[in-house]
């Protein structure tokens, strides 16, 4: 706050030097003004960093508390169609490997692994204790001029 007052005063001094035609005083005051602005920027950066670190620490603590209270959900087995696709890719990869087409076989193995990971990825379980948000998107269309307006309504 004090630096902002000093900066305003220096700007007034620069204007006064400019009106008087005192170029040397104006240059000196401009240099001092730049230094004051740098100091203010450094202080603001420090305050932002402190606030970020506090928020980060509280977030880490809340995440640790949340992970301690929740039980892990076992990964779900892939559905029948996905499992069938995995088996087909593994079979083709084996055939290609036997025929000496190692690169193609490796690609199919990678695809099968990706399908397996995709199928066993745990689904997010909604927690009723957390705040939920309702998002409603309203579109207004003015046909003659093809002007589209979208309005997003978020309620908690």
From TrEMBL:
Looking at the keywords, is Membrane present? no
A cellular-component GO term for this protein? U1 snRNP
**What Gene Ontology molecular-function terms does this entry list?**
mRNA binding
Q: Does the keyword ATP-binding apply?
A: no
Instruction: Tell me the superkingdom of the source.
Output: Eukaryota
Give the GO terms filed under biological process for this record: mRNA splice site recognition
Ranges in a coiled coil: 26-69
Task: Give the UniProt family note.
Answer: Belongs to the Luc7 family.
Protein name (Swiss-Prot/TrEMBL): LUC7 related protein
Q: Which organism is it from?
A: Zea mays
């Amino acid at each position: 706050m004090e630096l902002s007052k000093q900066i305003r005063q220096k700007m007034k001094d620069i204007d006064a030097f400019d009106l008087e035609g005192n170029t040397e005083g104006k240059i000196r005051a401009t240099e001092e003004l730049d230094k004051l602005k740098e100091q203010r920027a450094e202080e603001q950066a420090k305050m932002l960093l402190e606030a970020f670190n506090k928020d980060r620490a509280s977030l880490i603590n809340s995440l640790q508390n949340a992970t301690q209270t929740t039980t892990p959900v076992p990964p779900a087995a892939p559905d029948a169609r996905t499992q069938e696709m995995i088996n087909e890719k593994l079979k083709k990869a084996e055939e290609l490997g036997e025929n000496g087409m190692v690169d193609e076989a490796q690609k199919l193995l990678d695809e099968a692994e990706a399908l397996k990971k995709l199928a066993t990825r745990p689904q997010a379980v909604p927690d009723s204790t957390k705040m939920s948000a309702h998002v409603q998107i309203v579109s207004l269309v003015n046909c003659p001029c093809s002007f589209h307006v979208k309005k997003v309504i978020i309620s908690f």
